[in-house]
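Please check our next protein.
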Amino acid sequence: MSAHIIPFKGITPNIAESAFIAPSTSIIGDVEIGEGSSIWFNCVLRGDVHAIRVGERSNIQDGTVIHVSNGTFSTTIGDDVLVGHNCMIHGCTLENGSFVGLGAIVMDGVVVESGGMVAAGALVTPGKRVRAGELRGGSPAKCLRQLTDEERASLTNGAGHYAKLAQTYKTELG
């Protein structure tokens, strides 16, 4: 079992040696994945018409699709970012230490600032900004409230947990 790492238009994905890429994942074209990051089962990262960049120790959970807009919006995911299961991340920026909950959709031109949180199931429409310390949820997403100090401090805990779990999977799956 292995992931599908697919060159497109002469560009091969660039994946750090320490990253974990689960079997059944497809990574296509202009995609870079940083040290210690993890891309879990049944994810698709399709950098066919623009670039996708994933920083260090970031976690993309099972079933998530990451794509771009043709020539207009790349997708940039910073360091220590957690993206929950079954998300759609499209032509947007998730800054360092941001969080996107299960099943959320984050659209073109959106910026989720460091310390910003998108709730499970939210739809963040094009061009919006999720500010640091803000929880956005609903469809379309709106500011629900400010995160508590405790919540803000724990946003990157999940990314750290998954970085460790990914190394176990790398060892187990060889």
Q: What stands out?
A: The mean pLDDT is 95.
